[in-house]
## 1
Amino acid sequence: MANPRQSNRAISGRPRPSGTPGLSSDRLEVEQQRLITANVSPAAIPIILAARRPSTAHIYDSTWKSFLRWATKHHLDPSSISVVQLVDFLQEGFASGLSPNTLRRQVAALSSVLSFGPEVPLSKEPLIRAFLQGATNLRPPVIHRFPTWDLNKVLTSLTKPPFEPLQEVNFKFLSFKVSFLVAITSARRISELASLSVRSDLCIFHTDRVVLRLDPAFIPKVNSTFHRSQELILPNFCPHPRHRLEKVWHTLDVRRALKVYLSRTSSFRRTEALFISFQPSTMGARVSSSTVGRWLRATIATAYESQSLPVP
């Protein structure tokens, strides 16, 4: 059982240097002040602050702003919040429908700017641990049952209109087909697909395959030398078709599809990123990983619709 006195200890933060009550709304500024207080050298601080991925930093910033709004609403000084009060913040989030995983991310975010000391991270506080465990027991993770789809049905559709002939189809269906073929032959994350490049040293065509490499500026989910240096080696498929069926299969050749894609998009390409927008307002610009994801889902939907099948 947690010690009541311990649970009511104030969480330490770094007040704004101007003397204004509370903490800065800029989480990065608060974290920087904590590092300064800990006597971390000025040269090391920006390196430490760069430890998190941009997406993680965005989540942390959003959580911090939400926490400050909550503290203001309850007339609390965020620089002297107790564990009990922090549990109240988590409770309000739980009552509003936040999942236990989201609450854990909130604790991780607040740990970057609030703590009891270097030896007691927020996630290890008994009351917080008990609350998160209770939240998980009361609201266990939902098991998502995604609709299944048949790869053979999609591949069959990719050999016919509206995805063929590849030299004539509009850029939307060209983009759908090429991104889908690269996705299924590489089995890579969507974020990695969006970071592929057409630079000559990152997109290399051989007679029997095409080798794709990640943009050096891209930070993968697992940021290691091994993961950053991995190549996508995509072999060709029925390169010399003779019979009717082989000619059909050759339309699924990812090397052929990439060749056509690069040729047809060269006139309006505005970036070295492999996948580019076909929308008039952003024609030729780099697309995000979420857009590539939408293309893949749209490919499956279009494939089913073209065969008069219910879309999964």
## 2
Amino acid sequence: MLRESFAKLRKVRKFTILTHIIAWSISLVWIIPFIGVAMASIRPLNEILDGWWNFEAFNPTLRGYFETWTHPTAPLSRALLNSLIVTIPSTFIPIFIAALGAYSFARFDFPTRDLLFLTIVLLQTIPQQMVIIPIFNTMISIGLWNNYIGLILVHSAFALPWQILFLRNFFSILPVEVEEAARIDGASYFKIFYKIVLPLTMPALASLTALQFVWVWNDFFFAAVLISSPDLKLATQAIPAQLGRRQPDWTVVSAGSILVMVIPIAIYFALQRYYVRGLVAGAVKG
């Protein structure tokens, strides 16, 4: 018995060590380009032409950060604010609507429920490029082209199918007994929803917040089609605009890229406590 236990423990340790090696290797592959961009943002171009890992000459400077922040044609200070104006409502509006819809699918039985849910799931398969021309024409016809409201509506609409699927699976594994007890005590469905269900759903909501925020923040395609005024352009549009038509200043562009990364990374670290727990629970139907 003792030998078998030691053998099993050895196998578990080998598996754990192998898992850590693979995870650290993947992390290293991901972080090396980030380090390269960070080095390019604080070093003159001539110092990194032979590779950012070459430190024979090392004269760090914050010039790139100052210039990208106050760029004459595409200042990142304004672009970051514009991105926040679009990203914050585009994150919370679909989550609120998806939570209501997902709870209905998980708890109530109504005609065509399964067919409607299947339709919502299938909507996830529609690529952005397939519907961008109808969206573009619709936004022009209703006066929402080159308007943040139109962009927020598009982001919200594209987020709803996968968020409803995600939250419906999460709601399905929550214990029904607590809700039934509250119902017997006279609580309404909406009161049960926001007093009992939503607090229990915090890990899933935090995961959705992080995923949706990063997706909208990093979006370039919809922003490029629906926003054209220089004063309204988002951070993902400002970075290419800083390249210019002649020789680009890679120190400025790299510094801008680092600044654009900071906010989604901060969001992830703030919500990482719930992130993995919410993803695992939302991916498995009880």
## 3
Amino acid sequence: MMNVANGERDVKMKGTFTVDKAFNNNVIVARSESGEEVIFIGKGIGFGKKPGDVLSEQKYEKVFILADQEEQEKYIKLLAREKQETLLIIHEAIEKIREWMGVELHERIHFALAQHLVLALERSRNGTEIHNPFLTETKWLYHETYRISQQVVAFLYEKTTVQLPEAETGFITLHIQSAIGREFLSKKESGDLIDRCVSYAEEKAGVSFNKEGVHFQRFVQHLHEMIERSMTNEYPIEKKMIHLLKEENSLCYNISRNIVRMIEKSIQQSISGVEIVFLSIHLQRIIAK
């Protein structure tokens, strides 16, 4: 999210802004001295504001600025149909995400996550059952972000007394990851690739993996890291270790080699042979359990 920051938690407006419209006590549309339209979102920022009022340089706690025109339009539509109190709680939740993550979030999160949470709260109030086919992979792929999403769910429960299901924790995790600004495969592509790798390994090993076990968690996490970093450097010890693996556990070696090939094909980039070693070790531990 674009914001003009003076420290992590305070926003200092640079220059002056003229109020065009106050949607409510917490959201205003304003223009900079150069004519750029922005939306300010923050508790009490719109209180008593009228068109033509001037906002001078000052600090505001927990204020976000939407400058992208498309994001502004989508957020304004959301304002028109949702309760002010609900959106303010969601705004506070997004501020907590930024605080807990310790990084700036892409501007898209304010509409995308706000819209999702509005619908999630509504579905939970109505008792609608939610299914998340990527939940297990999401928990292991984005472990730290998932923990933050659990805190978000707890915060929303504290403020609304509505308990979101675990499936929604997974969806919130994916929204946060998207807003961090890193380049990932899409959630479906990443989830499908991990699923294919795991299914292939189970089929060839002839066993069903314990999806809640720590060794499976490490295996899936390593697959994710392979996709992210695409490590190509070779290591002197690699050939000797691969030879030993072939001799001592050809099953895990062959599965791991083919998984590496599957990922290379998907990301269209070569991966170091040392990854076969790492995956083989993970698989040996899973199968041994």
## 4
Amino acid sequence: MGVDTMLRITVFFVFAATWFGLDAQARVWTDSTGNYSLEGDLVAFDGADLVLQKADNTLVGVDLEQLSEKDQEYVKSKEAKDTLDQKGKGEHAWEMRNGLKVIGKVVDYMRRDVTFRMFRGTIYVNDQKFENLPEVYQKITPLVAAHFTERNITDRAGLFDWLRRRRGEPETFTTEGVLLELPNGNHYAVPFFLFSDKALLALKPGWDRWAASAQEYEDQQESALYLQSQAQAFQEDAQRTAEFQKLQLQLQGYTAGLFSLWEVVLYPNPGTPGTALSVVVPGRDSRQASITAMERNPGYSVGPVARVNRQF
């Protein structure tokens, strides 16, 4: 392996550490008997059940009571809560079949009847006037009608034309899908058939179990928890893919001499626990590198900054 290749690999890993950070070592979980253990990260907990993500990204559901006392105490600790809160931050973008992207957090599965009817020229959806529906549902309900009737219904006008032909006869469709919590905090039912095939890979696997346990509250809660974990893992994987692509572009930019690598020394501000840090970040100049370093390390102030020598 030549020096050039070695240096490029070194720079690649510098960027990898810069963009992805250094992941904390996964926790080793032990069962109450002490005979079995599992290594993984805590990704969800609802008070009775938890979901762990192994190194290969597979998810494992565990009852809290099955764990050792030490692990049970950890799950209930502030440290575990802060970890879960951090994982839950950020907006999730779900791609629809028509290319639209909806920002929202998946919270549960749903099965709901949607009834359309017209009375004296007014469209009603589940006994609510169409005009009084939330804007999200004003966009979704025409697509529900279009899906089940196989008609070209895309808006209120399409609904009006279809229902006028029915002469007041109501029509009910049963929809299956997920509940999305949008940034405004409200929950909306979104049918599976509106999502892209890629999104369904994350959303659909637990549906059969949820549907089969319609009368069992605890089973449905477990299914909902698994769904949330699967959706979170899907979004994190998509983010890693996007960051890796960005990483490759950064590496190409460095190789082409568009910017340099900078070593930035950071000192903790008063009240910030920790010691001085030395980080390597990309930047066109020392000022940009300093800003980047502080953005990625809140609570620190910039010390000496030095350009990393380019050797190829």
